[in-house]
Amino acid sequence: MAVGGGIVVLFGGFLVLVVVIAVLGYLAAKKRREAFAMLAAQRGWTYLESDDRWVDGFAGAPFGLGHSRRAGNVLTGSYDSRPFVAFDYKYDTTETSTDSEGRTTTREVSHHFSVAAIDVGAAFPPLEVTPEGFFSRMVGRLTNRDIELESEEFNRAFTVTC
Question: Peptide bond preceding 62: is omega within 30 degrees of 0, i.e. cis?
Fold first, then answer.
């Protein structure tokens, strides 16, 4: 086989792989939406594939960040006689970087979150549970705002502030 033919076969194989991954991702998302719809129907809740009124429904991070904010797979209803909402929250940011030769590139980055909120009938200070990184660990220790829980493994993985 000629070198050109090998490149064509390699490119064709890569293209097939990309299509297979895209189809599998689509099918997995469809299956997840169907599972949410079935759960909502069984429990008397409401399921909407998209409902962007929730993107501005809360204060604090990650709300209000980035652009192109959207809420999907939205479940609403009541649990133990208390209203709740749960949804997938996404927003985009534009990141710009410059390489060592001064060339600038810009790319869009999507940020994904799962949100669950329930009305407990009382006012509480804001509670935030975020993945722990080096910077957040140092800030938490310096400001003494990181709440330590019983599980050391959890404390290493997450920052809890309230």
Answer: yes
11: helix, strand or coil? helix
Both structure tokens of 36: 């949410």
- pTM of whole model > 0.85? no
Q: What is the pLDDT of residue 136?
A: 55
**Amino acid found at 32:** R
Sorted by sequence, the CB contacts under 8 Å of residue 121 that are 6+ apart come out as 82
Burial code (b: 16+ CB inside 10 Å, e: under 16) for 64-97 equals eebeebbbbbbbbbeeeeeebbbbbbbbeeeeee
* The dihedral sign for the CA sequence 14, 17, 23, 27: negative
18-58 tens-digit pLDDT: 888 988 888 888 898 899 899 999 999 999 999 999 998 88
Backbone angles phi, psi at 83, to 5 degrees: -65, 145
Q: Which amino acid is at 115?
A: V
DSSP 102-144: S-EEEEEEEEEEEEEEE--SS-----EEEE--HHHHHHHHHHT
